[in-house]
């Protein structure tokens, strides 16, 4: 069955860096666009970033552009989100999503068919 398992979350100080990962199984990972979304405490889901099947096209929310980098390793069936210069407002539960359509739609959080359980990222001094 399809599984997406996020890991790598934790506590980081403002200005620090963290990389979260999403291990995929149960499907042909290289055939799917993928995305990251997040949910801050008391707020709705926010789209963060998306990536094409081969990794050549990437997309970012304005709030993370220039600080976050999405990537994938199709040989390892793993999606990554490298976060730098982190801010307290980046504190959230981060989820990876499989996108069934052949496109990333920046801003949309509902165009997925599978989502992981999330990994908590906290930015605080």
List the helices and strands and how they pair.
Elements: E1 3-7, E2 10-12, E3 18-25, E4 33-39, E5 45-51, E6 58-60, E7 68-73, E8 78-83, E9 92-99, E10 114-115, E11 119-123
Parallel strand pairs: 2-11
Antiparallel strand pairs: 1-3, 3-8, 4-5, 4-9, 5-6, 7-8, 9-10, 9-11
Properties at a glance:
mainly beta; 125 residues; 7-stranded mixed sheet; 0% helix; 11 strands; 4-stranded antiparallel sheet
**Percent of residues in beta strands?**
over 45%
What is the makeup of the main sheet?
7 strands, mixed
The total strand number stands at: 11
> What letter string, H or E per element, gives the SSE order?
EEEEEEEEEEE
- Cα separation of the termini: 40 Å
**Secondary structural class:** mainly beta
> DSSP helix count?
0
Uncertain runs = none
Q: Nearest-angstrom radius of gyration?
A: 13 Å
- Mean of pLDDT: 96
Which outline best applies? globular
Fraction of residues in helix: under 10%
What would you note in describing this structure?
With 125 residues, the protein is an all-beta fold. Helix content is 0%, strand content 48%. Strands 2, 4, 5, 6, 9, 10 and 11 form a seven-stranded mixed beta sheet that branches. A four-stranded antiparallel beta sheet has the order 1-3-8-7, with no helix packed on it. It is globular, with a radius of gyration of 13 Å. The termini are far apart. The model has no long low-confidence stretch (mean pLDDT 96).
Structure summarized in a few sentences:
With 125 residues, this protein is mainly β. The protein has no helices and 11 strands. It is globular.
